[in-house]
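Researcher: I'd like a structural prediction for the single chain below. Treat it as a standalone chain; there are no partners to consider.
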Amino acid sequence: MTISTENTHSQNHATNKLLNGPKDARFVQTVRRSLNPLYYLDSNYQRYGDIFISQSSIFPHQVIISNPQAIQEIFTADSKLFKSGTVNHITLPLVGSSSLLLLDGARHLQQRKLLMPPFHGERMKAYGQIIRNTTEKVINNWTPGKSVIAQSTMQQISLEVILHTVFGLSEGERYQQIQQLMINMFSLFNNPLNATFLFIKSLQKDLGAWSPWGGFLRQRQRLDDLLYQEIRERKTQSEPLGEDILSLLISARDEAGQPMSDVELRDELMTILFGGHETTATALAWALYWIHYIPEVREKLLQELNSIDLENCDPAEITKLPYLNAVCCETLRIYPILFFTFPRLVQAPMQLMGYNIPKGMVLSPCIYLVHHRPDIYPEPKLFKPERFLERQFSPYEYLPFGGANRRCIGTAFAMFEMKLVLAKVLSRYSLELAENSPVMPVRRGVTMAPAGGVRLVVKGRI
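Model: Treating it as a single chain, here is the predicted structure.
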């Protein structure tokens, strides 16, 4: 592709503008993006502006976009102009080819309709008590004077919540096995070096049980065996199906009256387990870091939480607290869990902000760079929840869960869980950071988590 030397942040409509971007070899860019994505994105934004071309082993020709007007054009365009499932192959080893994440067109729309109901409306009320009880159980043994790692504790809570809501399981041998395998599988990609196995396909070789990829494949096979056992038993049980997500999916039917196959059920379960566990735990760990790193934020939040009867109120009342909502929103702004929305593979030549985008190019709106635009978020590197009390942001300026037909179906559930867990933890214990120093994000699988997991010292019970 032709490269120009254009270097500007303002992208006004013009004709035949030429895409510019870093000239390093594809493999070099892949390694830089994998090991230090913040520097890669920030430096290229400063040099090439809010629409630039990038190359990597995942996407040979990728346009990284942080211009809200361009993102609006992409999100409001006919979805048939793009394919997303076929280029989201980074998640294939984790979720399987029948996952919502890897589907396009009519099949994607159909699966999305089947998966939406469990995450909205009345169902959420039932999940509220599960979230509160699980949080209470996990943090109940915290001891004053001892320290806890926020990331691992929040992971325990989010995993138990998702297993309970997805399977209706909260105890028993299979529950324990699934829980342990989930922990083992995701911990394989905890460090930035191992995470590169997900991004560089040539590294995905089974060199035995002790190799990173070989270990992952064996863990995945054991988890698959348990999931298929659970699906088969649930389908053949005599008693009525429950209110958990698996039961709802088993009883769901498409327009032709057909149920989901066992493979489709397995892949969607993995999608929910993968998408609703690690991401929420990481967001909660970041929130606890910021709340305790900035004393005024903690004081304001505690004041608001003390204004209602947390123990006896309806969970929905907690989720409506404005400052708690602002803290959660700012947490997801400053270090979004995923740095990009779904990639969109262009199916026919198109115009975007005066650029000619050829067929075969991948468009990648960058959540992180949009959230760090100083023209939208003054002093973007500072944690300031008040931004979300002072103004409303459009879905093209604030997009932690992606957008359009690829927006995360678990958005409402994730925010609901974040708020209820934070309210329970902060109203139960007085905490402080073990080290009051800045924490940087590191790659953890496909997410960006706080380095060290955020160590907190338990000062006492409240």
